[in-house]
Amino acid sequence: MKTIKKCLFPAAGYGTRFLPATKAIPKEMLPVLTKPLLQYGVEEAIEANLETMAIVTGRGKRSIEDHFDISYELEHQIRGTSKENYLTEIRNVINACTFSYTRQVEMKGLGDAILTGETLIGNEPFGVVLADDLCDSENDGVLKQMVKLYEKYKCCIIAVEEIPAKDSNKYGVIAGDTIKDTQYDEGALVRVNDMVEKPEPKDAPSNLAIIGRYILTPDIFDILRETKPGKGGEIQITDALLEMAKIGKVIAYKFDGKRFDCGSVDGFVEATNYFYKKSAR
């Protein structure tokens, strides 16, 4: 298998839980402090040594492309002033990687968004980051942790966390067998044998929910092409990954770090407070 150098960002969704703010602003561009959610995700991918950011956008998402580009007029206006340093972080991001874009014409689920990104990824393993799942770790970032796992096991890696049973109908939920690996805490790795998209609590196979970080191998694209619409009439990445799990090619990883659901108002406020306190240390 090739090393992982590309990261896919599905960013075509409408962000309806943040209306009316997201009527004209992509949800991925909502700022936590002074930085949009998508930039946090790109920086996490850069830390994991990924070089190409492949972004699946849609109508009304032009500001994403503009953000990861030079603004000559703005830079001219603030050059030589105390405000010039405000652009240092985004300049570093622009210089550290390459951006490519394609559009998801119709919103048909995360699986369809990932399949739409095939033209940007090609025949190689890749990371996937959902920007509204904002993650933070005191050590290696979540994606870097997962890349290290991929380098050892050479299969799909999905990030999971324990959730309250009552919340199972908001997530894809996995079950499987614990992998014993002395490099990781007991129970941190699970060889997946079952995955269910948004099950009711009584039907959930465990309390381990998939969050928005994946390492996928390129054979996922062929499986997605054959995947029928599932829960909600959408093409679910969970259904495609289940096919790979049946032959032992999916590992779930209880990552080291914190995750904030910034697709919800409560999670967004929690993340803002957390990063504000962290910046004041």
Walkthrough of the structure:
The protein is an alpha/beta fold and 281 residues long. It has a single domain, classed as Spore Coat Polysaccharide Biosynthesis Protein SpsA, Chain A (Alpha-Beta Complex). Helix content is 31%, strand content 25%. The chain has ten helices and 13 strands. The protein has helices at residues 37-47, 62-67, 72-78, 88-96, 110-116, 118-121, 142-153, 220-226, 237-245, 265-279, and strands at 6-10, 31-32, 35-36, 52-57, 98-103, 126-129, 133-136, 156-162, 172-178, 189-197, 208-216, 250-254, 258-261. The strands form three sheets. A five-stranded mixed β-barrel has the order 8-11-9-10-12. A hairpin with a 2-residue loop joins strand 2 and strand 3 (35-36). Helix 5 (110-116) crosses helix 8.
Keywords:
25% strand, 31% helix, 10 helices, two-stranded antiparallel sheet, single chain, five-stranded mixed barrel, alpha/beta, Spore Coat Polysaccharide Biosynthesis Protein SpsA, Chain A, 281 residues
